[in-house]
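Sorry to interrupt, but I need a hand with the structure work. Could you write out one complete protein record for me, on any chain you like? Could you add the entry underneath, on a fresh line?
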Amino acid sequence: MASRLCLFSLLIASCSLAMASDPSPLQDFCVAAPNPRVFVNGEFCKDPKLVQADDFFFRGLHLMGDTSNAVGSNVTVVTVAELPGLNTFGISMARIDFAPWGINPPHTHPRATEILTVLEGNIEVGFVTSNPENRLITKGLQKGDVFVFPQGLIHFQRNVGNGYAVAIAALSSQNPGAITIANAVFGSNPDIARDILAKAFQVDKNVVYQIQSKF
C-alpha cells in the first residue's frame, strides 16, 4: 500500500512538472487564430490550409526603439500576439534598447526563463533570489556576452556607458508576461491602500503618495 502511495505521489509530481511550461505542439504548427468568444490556455489554431508564410514572419526588430522616457529604455517584444506562428512553440523574443545610463527596471516574467545577448554597449544585469535569502547576483556584460535570468525572479538591466546599448532576449514561452515591480506596486488600478504600502516598505504614507503620483 505504501509503495502504491509513493508511486501515485511521483506521478502527481511528474504531471505538475510537465504542466509547468507552455504546451508542447502535437502537430507541425498551430498558427494563432484568436477567438474572443472563448477563453483557452493559449490560442486557437488557424486552419492549416489557410496558413501563409506571413504567419511565421515579423519585420522590424532591426529598428531602434524610442528610449526618450523616464527609464531610458524600450522593449520591442515578439510574442504570439505579434507573430501568430509562435503559438504552441514555447518561445518568444525581444529587442531592448537603452539610452545612455538607461535601465530596464526590476521586473519578472511569470511564465518564462530569459536568456539575454548584448549586441552593442556595456550592460549591467542582475537578479534577486527568492525569500529568505534575497541574494543579489549581478554581472557586467560586454558585446557578445550572454546571461540567463531564472523564471519568475526579479531582474533588471542597466546601460553603464555613455552611448546607446542594444540587447536581444529569448524567452521560454510564447507569452512570457512581464510584471514591472514599481508599476505593479505603485501604479495598480485601483491603488493599493497607502497604509499597506507604508507598512510594507517601512516609510511614511506621504512618501507612498509621492511615489504613487508618478505612476
